[in-house]
Amino acid sequence: xxxxxxxxxxxxxxxxxxxxxxxxxxxxxxxxxxxxxxxxxxxxxxxxxxxxxxxxxxxxxxxxxxxxxxxxxxxxxxxxxxxxxxxxxxxxxxxxxxxxxxxxxxxxxxxx
Length: 112
Description:
Helix content: 40-55%
Strand content: 5-15%
């Protein structure tokens, strides 16, 4: 399907493209998904260190959004200190070919 197929809807948010952006859009969500695709499972603090400048509040919020959208699985272990791990769900893994294509595009176009 192309964007032309959805012109009658009137709003880009109502298209499949709009839905996709609502799930993975923003500064951090695709980075989180990429990190999880390379290393699973990942603990919260490990993810925070890998992502760098993201705040704890933002990371927590982005992970909750991804979990609500069915992209990320959160597993909490009942121990002290608390241990929480994140991994991709099957739905999240279906995005991996798209992430790989984006990486290939970046590699080809980075210095151009």
